[in-house]
C-alpha cells in the first residue's frame, strides 16, 4: 500500500445491490443515522464479487452507528482506501489529501507536528465512505488524551494453515490470563483469520507502559507454549504459530475499529461478540456487510455496551 493516493478513478457500476450479494434484505439508512454528505456514484461496487456498493457500506454504518460511534469519534484515524474497489489498488492513508471532505477533521500532533485525521460524527463516516475507505483504523486513544491510551489490544494473527480452533483457544487462554490479572476484556472478530481481545483502560498509563505490558503479556504466552505462540513479528518466527500482535499498542499504531468493514473477500466486518459465541465456534469472518447473519447479530444485545465503563487503570500507570 502507498501512503499518498492518486485521485480516485473509475466509472460507477449501476448494477450494484445496496448491500450483501446473497439476496438478503438490505440495510436502509432511513430512520437511522442521517448525513448531509452526498455520495458520488453510490452504486459503485467497492466489493465487486460480493456486490457491495458505496451505498451498501454507508447503510451498514448507518445501522451500526449507535454502537460504533464511541470507538471512532474524536480518535486519530488511519484509513485503507480502495477507490476502485478492493480488487484495485489500495492505499493506507494517515494524512489529508486533495478532495477530502470537510467533514473529515484535521489537527496537528503536538509531539511531532504531523497531521492527524479524525471524525466528529456520522457525517465524518459518510465522508470516509465517499472517499472509498474500506477499512477504518483507530489509535487506542482520543484526540484529547493523545498520550494516555484507553485500551490494550491483542491481535491474534495465525500463520497460514493454523486451524481456527487453535486461534479460538488462544483467545480463550488470553481471557483466562486477563482474569487472573483482574483486567476486563472484550472480544471481536477480525473479519479475517483471527480475533481481537481488547482491554478497556481508564487513561492513566502512557504508551510506553501500555506497550511494555502488552509485550510482556505476549512474551509470557510464547514462553508457556512456544510451539503455539510467538511474540516475534518476523515471518520465520511465525511459521505454524499464532503471532500475538502487541505492536498495535504503540503511539501512532492503529487497529481496525469495531464494526469497520474489511478489505477482504466476503466484505466482512470486525464484529464485537460475546465470549460465549467464541466458545461456541464463531468464525472470525462470520459477518459480511449487509448479510442476514450480520443483521441477526446486530439485533442482539450489544456485547460491548459497557466497554469503557469497565475500564481500569493499568497498574503502575
Summary, kept brief:
By secondary structure, the protein is α+β, with helices and mostly antiparallel strands. The protein is 25% helix and 18% strand.
Q: How would you explain this protein's 3D organization?
A:
- This protein is of the alpha+beta class.
- It has a domain at 151-310: DNA primase, PRIM domain, CATH 3.90.920.10.
- The chain contains 7 helices and 14 strands.
- The protein has helices spanning 54-72, 122-130, 164-180, 207-224, 235-238, 275-279, 292-298; strands at 45-47, 52-53, 77-81, 91-93, 104-108, 115-119, 133-138, 151-158, 186-189, 195-200, 229-230, 242-245, 255-256, 272-273.
- A 6-stranded mixed beta sheet has the order 11-12-8-10-9-14. It has a 4-stranded antiparallel beta sheet with strand order 4-3-7-13.
- A hairpin with a 4-residue loop joins strand 1 (45-47) and strand 2.
- The two termini are 35 Å apart.
- Mean pLDDT is 90; it is low at 1-31.
Query: What is the CATH C level class of the domain at 151-310, in words?
Result: Alpha Beta
What spatial order of strands do you see in the largest sheet?
A: 11-12-8-10-9-14
Number of strands: 14
CATH superfamily annotation of the domain at 151-310 = DNA primase, PRIM domain
Q: What structural category do the secondary elements indicate?
A: alpha+beta
Intertermini distance: 35 Å
- Individual helix count: 7
Instruction: Write down the secondary-structure element order.
Output: EEHEEEEHEEHEEHEHEEEHH
**C-alpha geometry:** globular
Gross CATH architecture of the domain at 151-310:
Alpha-Beta Complex
Main β-sheet, in a few words? Answer: 6 strands, mixed
Low-confidence runs of at least 5 consecutive residues? 1-31
Average pLDDT figure? 90
Q: What proportion of the residues form beta strands (DSSP E)?
A: 15-25%
Amino acid at each position: 500500500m502507498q501512503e499518498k493516493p492518486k485521485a480516485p478513478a473509475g466509472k460507477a457500476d449501476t448494477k450494484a445491490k445496496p448491500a450483501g450479494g446473497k439476496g438478503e434484505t438490505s440495510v436502509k439508512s432511513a430512520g437511522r443515522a442521517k448525513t448531509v454528505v452526498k455520495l458520488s456514484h453510490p452504486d459503485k461496487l467497492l466489493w465487486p464479487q460480493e456486490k457491495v456498493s458505496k451505498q451498501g457500506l454507508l447503510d451498514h454504518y448507518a445501522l451500526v452507528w449507535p454502537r460504533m460511534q464511541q470507538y471512532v469519534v474524536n480518535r486519530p484515524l488511519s484509513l485503507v482506501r480502495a477507490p476502485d474497489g478492493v480488487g484495485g489498488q489500495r492505499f493506507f492513508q494517515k494524512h489529508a489529501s486533495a478532495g477530502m471532505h470537510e467533514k473529515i477533521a484535521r489537527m496537528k500532533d503536538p509531539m511531532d507536528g504531523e497531521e492527524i485525521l479524525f471524525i466528529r460524527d456520522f457525517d465524518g463516516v459518510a465522508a470516509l465512505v465517499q472517499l472509498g475507505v474500506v477499512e477504518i483504523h483507530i489509535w487506542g486513544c482520543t484526540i484529547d488524551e493523545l498520550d494516555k491510551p484507553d485500551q490494550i489490544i491483542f491481535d491474534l494473527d495465525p500463520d497460514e494453515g493454523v486451524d481456527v480452533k487453535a486461534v479460538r483457544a488462544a483467545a480463550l487462554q488470553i481471557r483466562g490470563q486477563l482474569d487472573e490479572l483482574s483486567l476486563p476484556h472484550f472480544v471481536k472478530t477480525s473479519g479475517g483469520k483471527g480475533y481481537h481481545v481488547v482491554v478497556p483502560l481508564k487513561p492513566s498509563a502512557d504508551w510506553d507502559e501500555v506497550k511494555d505490558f502488552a509485550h510482556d503479556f505476549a512474551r509470557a504466552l510464547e514462553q508457556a507454549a512456544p510451539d503455539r505462540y510467538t511474540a516475534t513479528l518476523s515471518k520465520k518466527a511465525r511459521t505454524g504459530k499464532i503471532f500475538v500482535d502487541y505492536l498495535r499498542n504503540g503511539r501512532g499504531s492503529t487497529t481496525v475499529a469495531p464494526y469497520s468493514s474489511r478489505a477482504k473477500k466476503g466484505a466482512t466486518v470486525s464484529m464485537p461478540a460475546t465470549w460465549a459465541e467464541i466458545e461456541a465456534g464463531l468464525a472470525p469472518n462470520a459477518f459480511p456487510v449487509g448479510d442476514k447473519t450480520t443483521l441477526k447479530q446486530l439485533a442482539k444485545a450489544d456485547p460491548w455496551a459497557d466497554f469503557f465503563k469497565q475500564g481500569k487503570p493499568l497498574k503502575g500507570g
